[in-house]
Amino acid sequence: MPTPSSDAPTTTQRQISDEITAFGNARRGTDLAQPALDYTPYRSSILRHPTQDPHPADPEGAELWAPCFGHQDVDPLEADLTIQHSGEPIGERMVVTGRVTDGDGRPVPHQLVEIWQANASGRYIHQRDQHPAPIDPNFTGVGRCLTDAEGTYRFTTIRPGPYPWRNHRNAWRPAHIHFSLFGTDFTQRRITQMYFPGDPLFAYDPIYQSITDPADGALLVAHYDHDVTTPGWSTGYRWDIVLTGTHRTRFEPDEEGEA
Amino acid sequence: MTHRATPGQTVGPFFGYALPYPGDNHLVPPGSPGAVRLHGAVRDGEGNPVPDALIEIWQPGPDGAVVRSAGSLRRDGFTFTGWGRASTDAAGHYSLSTLRPGGEVPFFAVTVFARGLLDRLFTRAYLPGADLGAFPADRRDTLRAREESTGYRFDIRLQGEGETVFLRFPGHRAD
Ligand SMILES: [Fe+3]
Question: Cβ of B130 under 8 Å from any chain A Cβ?
Answer without folding.
Answer: no
